Amino acid sequence: MGNPATGPAAEQAESGPRQRGATIAQVAAQAGVSITTAWKVANGRSDVSLGTRRKVQAALIDQGYRPRSRNPRRTRLIEFVVHELESAWVLELVKGVQQAARANRAALVFSELEGRVTPLDSWLTDVLERHPLAVVSAFSVPPEEHRKSLAAAGVPLVAIDPVTELADRTPSVSVANWNGGLAATRHLLALGHRRIGMISGPPDILCGRARLDGYRAALDSAQVPVDPELIRHGDFLVGGGLREARALLALERPPTAVFVGNDIQALGVYEAAREAGLRIPADLSVVGFDDLPLTPWMGPALTTIRQPLSDMGAAALTMALNIANGEPPPHSEQIFPAELVVRASTAPPA
Questions:
Q1: Is residue 70 part of a domain?
Q2: Taking Cα atoms as reference points, which of 296, 250, 289 lies closest to residue 273?
Q3: CB-based burial of residue 343 (10 Å sphere; 0-12 exposed, 13-18 middle, 19+ buried)?
Q4: Would you state the pLDDT for residue 226?
């Protein structure tokens, strides 16, 4: 026998104005579905077709409906969504996420998107069936329909370094990417470089665009013209760094320094320099971004921009749990500072 204080019948029986918004019956009437179906969607049940779920979600949002109480089946699971697990960047985030989860006696469930930055509809169905406390998404953002479904089910979402602007102000944790790009380029300018190449990430990725904008701003403030042929878009992978660095070094007037959008691509730049018979930093200075554990061991040790990935992961999970406990953060976005770490890969131009 079900709990008499919960379920569609109990919510239908409510009378008078609700402090939390409309009744489930009003939501069902607007969506043109049964009260049971509306209740299932409102409480995170996955056994509703996608089309029906979208209609009910729209009614839930329009009516300002909130479930009477938190789902009694909610587990102490945190859904951690990543674009891929074979990433040194993700592994640093995992350290912080796991530490915070352990401190809060929560467990992690990993969802790998196999390189995609947007989950499939099947992912949403699986998540709703697991009834997690919250979802933390790293370098990947569920589409708007998924975000609405999670909100309707009372499952908060926090994004780490979201790949795109989020119009619905989904809470997020990131680093000061623009400031990092500015600091990296200013460091090279201070050394005397004027032909500074930039290997960014994909043009549709938010953090890559911000780092590129910081690069441009540094050149503008130093009254150094921005040369479009010195700007290349990589893929944040070693191969992309190698490909784009080869193209830069093949120019009639190649750069004397390169700012690379992440440390992994910097590995490709090192290989391109070796192929061209160039020495780092005597012939080519290189600055990366991330400060992954491998960077002090590169030959030579890489000058880079540090983002505190472990701290960012811990902050995102803590934020998600606080929201799940009814304690929304004072600001929807938490931005960590970006710090220049000078090592052996930069020097004045020859």
A1: no
A2: 250
A3: middle
A4: 96
Higher per-residue pLDDT: 28 or 240: 240
CB 24 within 8 A of CB 40: no
Average pLDDT over residues 7-28: 57
Instruction: Name the range with the highest mean pLDDT among 41-45, 57-61, 121-125, 296-300.
Output: 296-300
b (16+ CB within 10 A) / e for 26-50: bbbebbebebebbbbbbbbbbebee
Same domain, 258 and 147: no
- CATH number for position 140: 3.40.50.2300
Instruction: State pLDDT tens for residues 215-253.
Output: 999 999 999 999 999 999 999 999 999 999 999 999 999
Structure-block tokens of residue 233 = 């878009």
> Looking at residue 40, which CATH number applies to its domain?
1.10.260
Q: In what order do the strands lie in the sheet with 196-200?
A: 231-233, 196-200, 257-260, 285-290, 303-306, 339-341
Considering the domain architecture, whether residues 135 and 254 belong to the same structural domain is answered as no
Residues 224 and 205: their CA atoms lie apart, in Å, by 26
